[in-house]
């Protein structure tokens, strides 16, 4: 895809965004913030595009972090990505935190388990083979032995990787998502080159929300 790409993520206490042209990162930003992403995201994206002298209509695709992570933050960025994609007539591509973590941990191996921090001494985990997911994400309790086994050649990447590896007989790599905008750019560029998915990105929720659900009927999503 030759047109410029834009990706952003608000799945944790930050606003991260990047503009990619011809496979190169040309503008990026990472702003820590515990709250206020809804107000900060669009002005941040506008600044990056203006710095590169780009208009919204110049974009060829939108990438967005879909989590898992903070429920509200994920909804903010996914809603923005879907609205932008619909208005611009370009694909929106979901980028999971698992993919971003794995991309920052070196070359994928034949068997990887990627771990992301979850509340209450737990972790979200997902298995990958040669960089591709092989099943859906799970929520595990780090205070007790995990209930699944892994092949000995499996590399556990990410949050509490050593502890998970010891419990499953695998090897651990305590990798972090360093330079998040660069990770967003790398994964989005790869997925855009492979062909954007037909489905719209959706938040990746591995556990139910802590808050009680509203008794009101949810609004119908038209796009």
Task: List the keywords.
28% strand, five-stranded mixed sheet, 223 residues, alpha/beta
What does this structure look like?
With 223 residues, the protein is an alpha/beta fold. 28% of the residues lie in helices and 28% in strands. It is built from 5 helices and 11 strands, in the order E-E-E-H-E-H-E-H-E-E-E-E-E-H-E-H. It has helices at 37-51, 71-88, 97-103, 161-168, 180-194; strands at residues 5-9, 14-21, 24-32, 61-67, 92-96, 112-118, 122-129, 132-133, 138-141, 155-158, 171-173. Strands 6, 7, 8, 9, 10 and 11 form a 6-stranded mixed sheet that branches. A hairpin with a 3-residue loop joins strand 6 and strand 7. Helix 3 crosses helix 5. The protein is globular and about 50 Å long. It starts with a strand and ends in a 29-residue tail after the last helix. Residues 210-216 have low confidence and may be disordered.
Instruction: Supply the helix-strand structural class.
Output: alpha/beta
Oligomer: single chain
Give helix % range: 25-40%
Distance between the termini: 23 Å
In one word, what is the shape? globular
Over all CA atoms, what is the radius of gyration? Answer: 18 Å
Helix segment count?
5
Largest sheet: 6 strands, mixed
In the predicted model, the low-confidence regions spanning at least 5 consecutive residues are 210-216
Report the strand count. Answer: 11
Q: Let me know the average pLDDT.
A: 88
Strand content: 25-35%
Order of helices and strands: EEEHEHEHEEEEEHEH
